[in-house]
Recover the amino acids of this structure.
């Protein structure tokens, strides 16, 4: 399959540059469906995100249908009456595909396909498809393949359970279908194991690179946020790095780290994969190594698209909170950046600043607020420094040098058994000096 290499292009709209045509799902017209429980009625268009995902995957949206119910039907997702309505909507809109806003159980998917006579895909399949199309590094490709296999494995397991419950097979009487499925599962398991090994190898290499960066003791800042919020654009503006930017979801899959100088001190700034609501767990699992860059940062700069409608912004904040929590970075110090200020009128500026008084309003595109952001990053980093008092024996002069690298200027007094120093050390480096602490 030809992969789009938009990471190297300066600007590209997925639909406009023709990349959509190389996508196997191009020319498909989907009818988007979703279930909402009555509580969320003021949340704007409940299918907005799915439609944006479809657009990014090169699929046109031919129509949409939402059912209000407390939870999706376990067998068919929609209720029976609504299914008849859906059938009519498919005919009327000329849709040739159903795209569901939730991950479907294999049984729901099968029953829907049987009832509607068109292929049914779920949200996870759409996201996996986008990731497959946007991955261009060796690691990215392996991560996506792993996520896809795990998604498919879950489906095969579902089928197997289904047959099992029908009484096909059973102890000592293995039916032909089941045998095939078990063979497929074994092949899939072997491949999953091989992918995990190769990813672990790549992760070791990355770990070595990271260790080299760590030994340079530069403070690390990670950009995090909803996909398309402008993280890569901000990295570009802050560091001058040529990174890919695109008006589509999940443009960035591979982490990029660049150094940035803020009043004399160098920082490492990392841009990585964006988040989304209900991020498929297979992807979180497969992209663990990539997301690690965020987990290891001293500070997370959370980028929010301030020009998105309010409901969207709130959903984005929730999605990012949930994703950071899931990867174990929920407790990291965070600095909120409201991006795309250039798109706001004065009233809208007042409104977002009122809602997020602690945030910095910037435009990564025209540079507004970037100086203020640099200052806030410095200040936030200063907050993560911990004051320590250490006694360094004269025999360990190298440790003094090491400390000087992470802490900058030191307050020192020569004593009989060593040098007593007061230093402000980044929290992440504290453990390196535990043994020297003065009780
Ligand atoms: N008007 C305006 N557009 C912006 C700004 N920052 C980013 N954009 C646009 O928003 C789109 C997404 O920007 P990216 O920097 O690729 O966003 P991202 O957060 O890296 O997105 P993913 O990598 O897909 O997660 C692009 O079309 C950018 O040109 C801004 O400050 N103002
Ligand atoms: Mg990006």
């Amino acid at each position: 399959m030809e992969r789009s290499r938009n990471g190297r292009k300066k600007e590209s709209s997925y639909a406009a540059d023709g990349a959509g045509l190389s996508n196997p799902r191009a020319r498909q017209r989907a009818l988007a469906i979703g279930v909402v429980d009555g509580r969320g009625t003021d949340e704007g268009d409940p299918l907005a995100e799915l439609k944006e995902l479809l657009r990014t995957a090169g699929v046109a949206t031919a129509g949409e249908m939402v059912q209000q119910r407390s939870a999706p039907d376990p067998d068919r997702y929609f209720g029976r009456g609504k299914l008849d309505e859906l059938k009519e909507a498919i005919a009327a809109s000329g849709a040739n595909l159903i795209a569901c806003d939730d991950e479907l159980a294999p049984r729901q998917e099968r029953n829907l396909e049987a009832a509607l006579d068109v292929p049914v895909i779920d949200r996870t399949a759409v996201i996996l498809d986008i990731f497959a199309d946007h991955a261009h590094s060796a690691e990215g490709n392996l991560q996506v393949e792993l996520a896809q296999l795990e998604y498919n494995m879950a489906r095969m397991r579902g089928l197997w359970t289904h047959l099992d419950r029908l009484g096909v097979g059973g102890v000592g009487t293995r039916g032909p279908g089941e045998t095939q499925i078990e063979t497929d599962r074994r092949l899939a398991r072997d491949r999953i194991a091989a992918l995990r090994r190769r990813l672990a190898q790549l992760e070791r290499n990355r770990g070595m690179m990271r260790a080299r960066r760590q030994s340079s003791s530069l403070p690390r800042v990670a950009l995090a946020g909803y996909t398309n919020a402008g993280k890569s654009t901000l990295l570009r503006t802050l560091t001058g790095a040529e990174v890919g930017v695109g008006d589509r979801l999940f443009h960035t899959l591979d982490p990029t780290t660049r150094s940035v100088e803020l009043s004399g001190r160098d920082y490492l700034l990392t841009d990585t994969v964006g988040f989304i609501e209900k991020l498929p767990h297979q992807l979180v699992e497969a992209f663990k190594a990539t997301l690690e860059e965020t987990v290891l940062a001293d500070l997370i700069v959370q980028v929010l698209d301030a020009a998105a409608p309010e409901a969207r912004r709130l959903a984005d904040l929730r999605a990012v909170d949930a994703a950071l929590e899931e990867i174990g970075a929920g407790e990291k110090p965070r600095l909120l950046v409201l991006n795309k200020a250039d798109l706001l009128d004065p009233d809208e500026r007042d409104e977002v600043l009122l809602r997020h008084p602690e945030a910095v309003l910037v435009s990564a595109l025209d540079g507004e607020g970037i100086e203020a952001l640099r200052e806030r990053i410095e200040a936030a980093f200063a907050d993560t420094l911990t004051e320590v008092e250490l006694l360094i024996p004269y025999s360990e002069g190298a440790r003094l040098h090491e400390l000087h690298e992470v802490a900058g200027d030191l307050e020192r007094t020569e004593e009989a058994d060593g040098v007593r120093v007061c230093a402000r050390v980044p929290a992440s480096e504290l453990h390196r000096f535990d043994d020297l602490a003065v009780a």
The two ends are 62 Å apart (CA to CA). The chain has 14 helices and 13 strands. Confidence is low (pLDDT under 50) at residues 1-26, 157-176. The first strand starts at residue 29 and ends at 36.
